[in-house]
Description:
It is a single chain. The chain is an all-alpha fold. It has a domain at 30-114 and 220-369. The chain is built from 11 helices and no strands.
Amino acid sequence: xxxxxxxxxxxxxxxxxxxxxxxxxxxxxxxxxxxxxxxxxxxxxxxxxxxxxxxxxxxxxxxxxxxxxxxxxxxxxxxxxxxxxxxxxxxxxxxxxxxxxxxxxxxxxxxxxxxxxxxxxxxxxxxxxxxxxxxxxxxxxxxxxxxxxxxxxxxxxxxxxxxxxxxxxxxxxxxxxxxxxxxxxxxxxxxxxxxxxxxxxxxxxxxxxxxxxxxxxxxxxxxxxxxxxxxxxxxxxxxxxxxxxxxxxxxxxxxxxxxxxxxxxxxxxxxxxxxxxxxxxxxxxxxxxxxxxxxxxxxxxxxxxxxxxxxxxxxxxxxxxxxxxxxxxxxxxxxxxxxxxxxxxxxxxxxxxxxxxxxxxxxxxxxxxxxxx
Length: 373
């Protein structure tokens, strides 16, 4: 027992992950070639990132620039596919590659750490969203979190979409079945009260939906930005593969920006927050170019193959993968296709098929980029 206690002591446990002595590569593959192109990558990636993230916001109904609705439709679902492919191909796979490197040793050689971390983050995301929804709804309705009164807001739309309330129908039928002679002043005030209550409930649900969208957008930005920083560092310190990686990163950042920008543009931003979407897009636009500039500055000393770098990149990629998998599958696929009103009514099925095709194209192109980076 004493030996086990010593092994699991805080100092020894941390040393398992960050110990200095290891057999991992202590340098990088930088060879000094194409230095001018590496400098140009800062500005080219900046432009590509800006175009990808700002285009959906500019084409949305909230922008001063009015583009055809088809532009936003394509950008929205193309970006959804990009986010889903990014999670699996550009985050989870590299994370697994980093955290399963033979040089890391124990405990990485006995367990698939990347998948474990991704699973933990996915479950944690779901739990935090459950708590956030309960807190938001309780706050909006001035009720405690332990209230037993039902709430109707969820990812699955309004309860009335799939639950048939026979009691309500009966009451509604009874109330409006009165003849004019039986209709009295008490019935009139009762109906007015019901209308006010419905309007208040609708307002609370809109506020709850807005708060949920804000939460999802900021979480998505967090996951994408962390991933983009490591993309910039990798590009600037790469060796013989720099040219192919350069081209891939430009498209990668543009497509990923489309995914983030469409989510930002979908939020009904109030007048007091009208600059928030532009700031979010601006943050994404600059994160990778700044990382490229930092990477050029430390190109001779940054060791991407070292134990610390492998673990750091692997852990952050795993966390980002969990965030994007949850967001992609729940928020973008299930919510947008199954439980929204966008594809209802005449022509809705055809529109849904086109949206699905566009999403598959986005996922396919982003997955194809994984062949090179």
